[in-house]
Each structure stands twice: as structure tokens, then as C-alpha cells.
Amino acid sequence: MTLGMVFALTGAVLSTALAGWGSAWGVGLAGQAAAGVVAEDPDQFAKVLILQLLPGTQGIYGLLVTFITLSNIGILGGNPVADTHTGLLYMLACLPIAIVGLISAYHQGRTSVASIGIVAKKPDQFGKAMLFPAMVETYAILALLVSILAITNIG
Fold this sequence. Notes:
mainly alpha, single chain, 5 helices, 83% helix
């Protein structure tokens, strides 16, 4: 295995691991708040579940970038990475979703906690409450796009 392949695989691992870590953290925070609401009002289960699930998307984005990377570097298809320069490019291309996924999922979880509080007090305000964590999602989507565009244009 070349050093370039090691760098490329490191990028792939980081995109899944860091974005997944952030998602687990965010979903866990929101889940704690959601459980409290459901204990008081079981009818709010579906609403708070949706708010809890929102921070989980970053982990999916990281996994998607990992699959695209593995498909390009000779693990799941494509040509094996032969040089260090190309491997470093793949690793750097994976970093936007790895880093932004970690940070945005955590903050989306915290924002979901606040939105779950809104639903607990005013269930009819669910639509407005959902907008707050959705705004955090925007930055994860931008990072996903940057990583995908970078990875698919390494050649």
C-alpha cells in the first residue's frame, strides 16, 4: 500500500468518524430533551422525534463522502492511488464534511433541544421550531457539496 493510499483512506475514515461522532452527540442531546417531553405529553412523540433526528444527517453525509472516496481510490472501484500528492488531495477533500459535520451536528443538536422546548410549551409552533435546527443544516450541506465536488474532480 502506498503512502498516497494511506492518506486517501485517512480522509475517508475521518469523514465518517468525525461527522458520525457529531451526529451521535447531537442526536443524543436532542434525545434527552425529547424523552422529557414525551414523558409529560406522549402525543408529541412524532414532532420531537423529527427534531431529534435532524442532527443525524451529518453522519449520513460523512458516510456518503466515504463511499464516493472509496469508489474513486481503488477500494470499491476506480484506480488505486499511486502517489502521495493524490492521496493528500483526497484527504483534504474529505475534511470539509468531516470538520463541519462534527461541529454542525453538535450545534444542530443543541438547537434541536431548544426547539423541542418550544414544542413542549406550544405544540402548534412545530413548523417554526423546526426552522431553527434546519438553518444549521445549511452549513453541513455546503460542506458536503464542497467535499463531493473536490473528490470528483481529483484526477
